[in-house]
Write a structure and sequence with these properties.
Number of helices: 28
Strand content: 5-15%
Structural class: alpha/beta
Number of domains: 3
CATH topology of the largest domain: Rossmann fold
CATH architecture of the largest domain: 3-Layer(aba) Sandwich
Strand order of the largest sheet: 8-7-6-9-10-11
Distance between the termini: 98 Å
Number of strands: 18
Largest sheet: 6 strands, parallel
CATH class of the largest domain: Alpha Beta
Shape: globular
Helix content: 40-55%
């Protein structure tokens, strides 16, 4: 009897024990697998384990739970067997499933647009300080980009002197650009100025549909008003505002953030670096920078490279200072300085679990609160730096960033990390896995590498699409999601695309995932690409996957697509191009805003994992079919990564057929006489 009690007690204990993730099933990355195992051995739970114990709400996944008033939450599950005939589901106030799903969907757009746009506002404020010469830490680094942005913001770059036009002083231009840029967030009338950067037919579509954003902040606020209980109850009208808000993000806040960062910190050009947890170094002070805003991390990079700081680290027993990054701050300091990313969104806890992280410095967005709990198990100093992003745990240090004292803030942070080097209390285990990457591409560098005779436009890129060497263009972006196997969908989709001669433009955690897999080197083209794309990559020396930066830098993809349209031969609008978008492992509201502004810009856009609209079939069909009639782009959902890529390829082939370029041009071997007969 006693033995039976013991068995039952043991069974009860086992039943209460948390479920642990299988490291191999959780990630395709060996470094991640190793660190998940280590965390489990140390009794530290990570997001991979929590994904096993916390199950998502099925009704919430379908987008049909409304909690916008205290009479709810109202849950409207689909009837078993689906809906036959009229959909009679209603919430307490009578809101239909379509209304509820649309409200939830555009609230996600508002959240994502607010995150990106607030990032842009912070950069604009720092830019204004630099233009006013209020800070020694920031100066104008790219005057050419300043002139481009000035033109887009309708700032004069010439001044008339004695009847002749002369160049204005760059400092005067910078100050006016800063003031014009900041006004985009709250001006009382007009429209977002960057809309005019889009192809003219696309601008006219927005004008006809009545979705041109008036200013950035207003569109976020209006969504919150419309989705309040008892306001907008028409899913089509709700989505009209969702489109307007997303455009304020993609062609407003995000694009301004990218441009102003380029002017302040330098426009990225290709450089070599590495990626994955193996970039951390046991004998160095390891500072991991995590988040999305580069205004402080730029200064931390500069301070950590100073001779006096390196000597200070050596005096503490280290051989130097090793910076690395997580998420999009990683991409920002990668593309301008070659600082290697230690990992993607899902690897942030694992960087601390190496035991080698002396300080993790975080700013905004995609930061786990559980980092504080993990840091308690090690010596790591977790430092928050932004006034809107604090943590409640008592072991977190807050050093609030102020652009007027950026150098002092950065020095304090770097010294804190160095002083902590000698406090390591756990055996260091850094995975040896890392890969080489070439990153730092953008509109300007694509023009150079894939440009015309004098590398001045996108003609040669277009020509290679027309002749079939390049089948089309794919933008593959977005986060990781613990509900799917880490990095698997990202890598499978990208490999399937480049195998079929589709060149990939990437940002965010997809870019880091591709770097970890070795897809961001020119040499990878011969291994993974179809013959046409491989030939182009070999000829011009580029990878088949071009890393364009952080998630706000999706605006680079929009502008690159606009340049392709301008170069000619592939239609008159972005929706005419043999191009498609993808977010295989998305998880955040920002991804929904990005997806919507790509759709509204004319891009067929496929999401993986799930879409929070499936519980409202009529609304779901509006997004995945009817929206194409309005803007030329539409949503799609495909969780299987191979089918996901094949849907994108099928769309690209459909566009090639519509353009009359579905048959590859016959390739002729030319002799010298043939060449001499060509016109110069």
């Amino acid at each position: 009897m006693a033995e039976e009690v013991k068995v039952k007690a043991k069974a009860a204990k086992a039943a209460k024990a948390p479920k642990l993730a299988d490291p191999v099933k959780a990630s395709i990355d060996p470094a991640t697998q190793q660190m998940i195992s280590r965390a489990q051995e140390l009794g530290i739970d990570t997001i991979f384990d929590r994904a096993q114990t916390i199950k998502p709400c099925n009704i919430g996944l379908q987008g049909i739970c409304c909690k916008n008033c205290s009479m709810g939450p109202c849950r409207l599950p689909l009837p078993k067997g689906g809906i036959e005939g009229e959909d009679t589901r209603k919430g307490m106030c009578g809101a239909t499933a379509n209304t509820i799903a649309a409200r939830n969907f555009i609230r996600m757009i508002a959240g994502g647009a607010a995150a990106h746009s607030d990032h842009g506002r912070s950069v604009a404020e720092v830019f204004l300080s630099a233009a006013r010469k209020e800070s020694d830490a920031y100066q104008i680094k790219d005057v050419n980009k300043l002139m481009t942005v000035a033109e887009a913001l309708e700032v004069e770059t010439k001044v008339e002197v004695d009847g002749e036009l002369q160049d204005r002083d760059p400092d005067e231009i910078a100050l006016e650009v800063a003031e014009k840029a900041l006004a985009e967030w709250g001006k009382p009338e007009g429209e977002v100025l960057y809309l005019k950067r889009a192809p003219a037919p696309l601008y006219e579509k927005w004008k006809k549909a009545g979705v041109r954003p008036r200013n950035i902040d207003r569109e976020v606020v209006e969504i919150m008003h419309r989705t309040h209980m008892g306001v907008d109850q028409d899913y089509k009208n709700l989505m009209k505002q969702g489109v307007r808000c997303s455009l304020a993000d993609g062609w407003g806040g995000s694009m301004l953030a990218t441009d102003l960062q380029d002017i302040l910190f330098g426009t990225p050009y290709p450089l070599q670096s590495e990626a994955n947890l193996g970039v951390m170094r046991e004998d160095h002070v390891n500072i991991v920078i995590h988040g999305h805003e580069p205004v402080l991390s730029e200064i931390i990079v500069a301070v950590s490279q100073r001779k006096d700081m390196i000597e200070y680290a050596k005096n503490k027993g280290a051989k130097g200072i090793q910076l690395s990054g997580i998420c999009c701050t990683a991409n920002e300091i990668l593309q301008r300085h070659g600082v290697p990313p230690a990992g993607t969104f899902l690897q942030q806890e694992l960087a601390i679990i190496t035991g080698a992280c002396d300080a993790m410095v975080v700013d905004i967005q995609c930061i786990f609160q559980n980092l504080a709990n993990v840091a308690k198990c090690f010596h790591t100093k977790l430092i928050t730096t932004h006034p809107i992003a604090k943590m409640e745990q008592d072991n977190v240090i807050h050093i609030e960033f102020d652009e007027h004292h950026a150098l002092e803030d950065a020095e304090k942070i770097v010294k804190l990390a160095i002083d902590n080097f000698e406090n390591r209390k756990t055996e260091v285990m850094i995975p040896r896995h890392k890969a080489t990457q070439i990153a730092g591409f953008g509109v300007e560098s694509i023009r150079y590498h894939l440009g015309g005779t004098f590398r001045g436009d996108y003609f040669t890129l277009n020509d290679n699409i027309i002749n079939g060497r390049i089948r089309g263009i794919a933008g593959v972006v977005g986060c990781n999601n613990a509900r799917s196997r880490h990095n698997e969908a990202h890598i499978t989709v990208v490999k399937e695309l480049i195998k079929n001669d589709v060149i990939v433009l990437t940002t965010g955690c997809n870019g880091i995932a591709c770097a970890m897999e070795g897809l961001l080197t020119p040499e990878s083209a011969q291994v993974y690409c179809g013959p046409g794309l491989a030939e182009v990559c070999e000829t011009v020396g580029i990878p088949p996957v071009l890393h364009l930066g952080s998630c706000v830098d999706n605006s680079r993809i929009l502008l690159a697509a606009t340049e392709v349209v301008k170069a000619g031969g592939l239609g008159k609008d972005i929706s005419d191009l043999p191009a498609a978008g993808s977010a295989p492992e998305w998880m955040s509201e920002k991804a929904i805003s990005i997806g919507q502004y790509f759709v509204a810009s004319g891009v067929y856009t496929v999401f993986g994992v799930t879409l929070p609209t499936s519980g409202a079939p009529v609304f779901h069909e509006f997004l995945t079919k009817d929206m194409e009639k309005l803007y030329g782009g539409m949503w799609d959902l495909e969780a299987d990564p191979v089918k996901h890529a094949q849907k994108m390829i099928a769309h690209i082939d459909k566009k090639r057929k519509e353009l009359g370029i579905d048959k590859a041009r016959e390739r002729v071997l030319m002799d010298m006489a043939d060449r001499m007969a060509l016109e110069a």
